[in-house]
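Give me structure tokens for this 368-residue protein.
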Amino acid sequence: MPSFFAPTRRFSLASPLLLLGLFTINLIPTADAQIGVCYGMMGNNLPPANEVIDLYKANNIKRMRLYDPNQAALNALRNSGIELILGVPNSDLQSLATNSDNARQWVQRNVLNFWPSVKIKYIAVGNEVSPVGGSSWLGQYVLPATQNIYQAIRAKNLHDQILVSTAIDMTLIGNSFPPSKGSFRNDVRAYLDPFIGYLVYAGAPLLVNVYPYFSHVGNPRDISLPYALFTSPGVMVQDGPNGYQNLFDAMLDSVHAALDNTGIGWVNVVVSESGWPSDGGATSYDNARIYLDNLIRYEGKGTPRRPWATETYIFAMFDENQKSPELEKHFGVFYPNKQKKYPFGFGGERMGIVNGDFNATISLKSDM
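Here you go.
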């Protein structure tokens, strides 16, 4: 595992608990609550990148997640003012992890050649890699690839402006109920703990993809539709002093608690994906409209555990017809012809929660 620390602050990521006591001041994020939208490109009918960036600007979308360093998109982003999560594809992880020169070249080609005219805020090194399951062989490369990218950024003294992390999904959470008892699965701790140690050192957030939709459809008996859609009439889960009226907050706070409960150090969380499909499977256009509208309105409020705005990115900009299964084709907030799928906007309005007509029975149980 390559070392990336300055000599005066060297310690082993194999022993992340050594980080305790190195940091005595935790800064509360103060970034504004403007929501972002993920720009996926798995469609053969999508508009060209320059038109997509114009669409972001026309709709007051000031943050973007890009899953790979698409050169046309990066060029179109120049001087747009749009803040960017720039992705390192999973297919690049092994190359970047095993050769620091490859990482330096990647940073030169995809970051330095565009900075500062492209406002790269985060680099997401890999997406939803798990040390167990189908992508397990990639797990060994995530931290060293991140270290090498970080080192290349740090060499240009940009490490406080461009933060390097990875994006995980909720399958790495072992216990999520109640939220305060959130913990990572035992079989992923050896993978995650060193990475959390790196995040504490680098002052970078953990990027997390949070989908109440999948929790609801996976357990509709115990997770009611109003709870998932932000439309519950009152607190659904009381967890000590914290009351939860929506599943998004409960899921997010289970991640906060899982991080805190490692004892490694304080780490901020950015919601790097959240969405609701409009078709395919057990879903509907109206549910997607209600969830996304309420997420945009609610996003600046913070959670009971961390009551400040959480930076959040909607998945996705467009329906993508080359994804599978069918459900995955319908997460867009725009159609490929650039027409809005939903009537709401992205200006960060905070006008209360939009309600729908539901017949679902509200359950007080909230297994996530």
